[in-house]
Amino acid sequence: MKTKLITPTGMEKLKSELDYLWREYRPEITQKVTWAASLGDRSENADYKENKRILRQIDRRVRYLSKCIEELQVVHYAKEQEGKVFFGAHVEIENDEGSTLTFQIVGPEEIYDNHQRISIDSPMARALLGKQVDDDVTVQTPEGKKDWWINAIRYDTPNS
After folding, report:
1. Helix, strand, coil percent content, the chain, rounded in steps of 5
2. Beta bridge partner(s), residue 106
3. Which of 31-35, 83-87, 92-96, 114-118 is predicted with the least confidence, judged by mean pLDDT?
């Protein structure tokens, strides 16, 4: 089951997408469907069929986003988080080969448009939670166990 948490930035993106789909894109496609329907025979009308398909996709996404926005809990920065890895943290880690990774721990709904974000439900995020700089972490990966060290932790603060 996916964690129902989201960052304030992530929530704004979902709301923005919903607003765009409902107020701009859907009316535009509805107008095209109406125009294509006015041409007559719908059974062989490619414009009508295609725009109806797009309209169904928009409606499906609108329902999904509406449900997400209603169910997700926005997690705001709190001073108590400083120094440890919690939801919303930007973390830099390093392995024994000297490779470094930097990413933000976010909710599952936020990972798709940014490769520098990982879900709080991922094995890496779960291993890092509650740790602090210089702690070592062992993560079970498909290739076996991997050891990482935490180099840095920072948060997006309301003033940043």
Report:
1. 40, 25, 35
2. 119
3. 114-118
Look up the CATH architecture of domain 5-74. Orthogonal Bundle (1.10)
Query: Which tokens belong to 17?
Result: 């997408």
Alpha helices in the chain (DSSP H): 8-20, 26-37, 46-71, 123-128
**CB contact set of 10 (below 8 Å; sequence gap of 6+):** 106, 107, 109, 110
The CA distance from 150 to 72, in Å, is 29
Domain 79-154 bears CATH identifier 3.40.50.720: no
Tokens of 131: 């740790």
Q: Which amino acid is at 137?
A: V
- Given a contact cutoff of 8 angstroms between Cβ atoms, the answer to whether 19 and 86 are in contact is no
Residue 89 DSSP SS3: coil
Q: pLDDT by residue (tens digit) across 101-135?
A: 999 999 999 998 777 999 999 999 999 999 999 99
Token look-up 């108590």 returns 80
